[in-house]
Specification:
- The chain is mostly beta strands.
- It is elongated.
């Protein structure tokens, strides 16, 4: 613990002990008076974490901290406050702050759960570091953070989601059902001024290696999942702002604040490729576009090495269904792979899953659903349908009881067509998928959904 002579006016008694290589500063109560004081925790590491231990389990174990009176400076994953035996029915405010300029309190209002320690730390991570994964939480109880892909923005690359995230991490460990409140620096949000909106949600890193709203599903599509924020929050620049989450929170470890209304660059409705004689016709549709600069069509003959085939201008911004097409007049013989890449005006890009065609089969008698891949699958499958001529049809997925789960009307070109079915929301099991053509013929194969 480092005392700043200029600022620390009141002193308190502490004892230093060593426990499992961790430096522990222990006391029953920490009181900040009307003079500015800072408790600076520093030099903690994975091998030797630093703990400021508050032995009093009551809410007044720490009192008096404020923007005027002072706070605790953590600014590192291993510079921690350990509030012993945090009890249900108690609101615990840990007065964190950034250097000597910003008071950033964290509050855990514990509504249920056994009396257990509340261990917390927080730190600023620069925009540049966030973009490369430098300085992110490591060796937490659910593993190291390996991406900033946001469940709220599936277009992000591994660290590309940083543009939607406040540049601060919190690592919180306890057992509770609680309301969480996080305060962040408006200046940190300013680093992402083009992406951070006025609607922020609290997201939690889970054992499945993704960010969620505290429900372990890696799905943040409802207010229950996402902890819809309340209170004054989401502004950029100037003051510090607080985001308060749902009372249903009962999972802990790394947390971030993410922009909940950051739109997907594009909402892709379909992408398919089909043989047309000696050419391949490539078609796709978008339901909406935001800051979409252009598309890139890539081609491969082995699914591993890709070449750029063409670029197609995007619409920029659109809220209507738009259709695009491109014809590959020099297609490979046999099996070919095509995929679509979308690039924003800011240079960020998203590459979608490929589709496969085999033009050597285009004139065969092999019609209907020819294959489904990958199968089994967890998130999505590709259904390959071969037709002898251009036609329309219907693709239907049912459960084993015969109940209809999804249905889509599709237009097919002569040759091989590939359609994507999202099965991420399906329960584990077997699902028959059927293609009906205009002549009333049908072909059925089975999708195997895994957890």
């Amino acid at each position: 613990m480092q005392f700043r002579q200029k600022y620390l006016i009141i002193f308190f008694l502490f004892s230093a002990t060593f426990l499992h290589n961790a430096v522990v500063f222990s006391q029953a109560e920490l009181v900040f008076s009307s003079h500015t004081a800072y408790v600076n925790l520093s030099n903690g590491s994975a091998a030797t974490p630093i703990y400021l231990v508050i032995g009093n389990p009551a809410a007044n174990g720490i009192t008096g901290a404020s923007a005027a009176n002072g706070w605790i400076i953590s600014e590192g994953q291993y510079n921690c406050v350990d509030w012993k035996n945090a009890a249900a029915g108690t609101s615990y405010l840990i007065p964190f702050g950034y250097s000597h300029t910003d008071y950033l309190p964290f509050t855990l209002n514990k509504s249920a759960g056994a009396a257990t320690d509340l261990v917390a730390s927080t730190w600023y991570n620069s925009n540049a570091n966030m973009s490369t994964g430098t300085g992110v939480p490591a060796a937490t109880d659910v593993g190291a953070v390996t991406n900033l892909e946001m469940a709220l923005n599936s277009s992000a690359t591994t660290w590309g989601g940083y543009v939607n995230v406040i540049d601060r991490f919190w690592v919180i460990n306890t057992t509770a059902t609680a309301t969480l409140s996080f305060t962040y620096r408006g200046s940190a949000a300013s680093e992402n001024a083009n992406s951070i909106t006025s609607n922020l949600v609290i997201q939690h890193w889970n054992s499945s290696g993704c960010w969620d709203g505290g429900n372990t599903s890696c799905s943040c599509t409802t207010t229950t999942d996402c902890f819809t924020s309340t209170g004054t929050n989401g502004s950029i620049g100037g003051s510090d702002y607080t985001v308060t989450g749902s009372t249903s929170c009962n999972e802990f470890s790394p947390y971030i604040l993410a922009s909940s209304t950051n739109p997907l660059p594009i909402e892709l409705l379909s992408f398919n490729a089909a043989c047309d004689g000696n050419s391949v016709s490539i078609n796709w549709q978008t339901a909406s576009e935001t800051n979409n600069n252009y598309f890139t069509i890539e081609r491969s003959n082995d699914g591993a090495t890709w070449e750029t085939l063409a670029t197609v201008p995007g619409a920029g911004n659109s809220n209507t269904t738009l259709s695009y097409s491109y014809t590959d007049n020099n297609s490979f013989q046999g099996t070919s792979y095509y995929r679509l890449k979308q690039t924003d005006f800011n240079g960020q890009s998203k590459t979608f899953s490929p589709v496969i065609v085999n033009c050597s089969d285009a004139n065969s008698e092999n019609t209907g659903i020819t294959r489904i891949y990958p199968n089994p699958a967890t998130n999505e499958v590709y259904v390959e349908i071969s037709c002898m001529e251009n036609t329309n049809g219907q693709l239907t997925v049912r459960n084993t009881l015969g109940q209809k789960i999804t249905e889509q009307q599709i237009s097919l070109l002569k040759g091989n067509n590939v359609y994507t079915i999202d099965i991420s929301g399906f329960a584990a099991g077997i699902y028959p998928v059927t293609f009906y053509n205009e002549q009333g013929e049908s072909w059925t194969k089975k999708i195997i959904k895994t957890k």
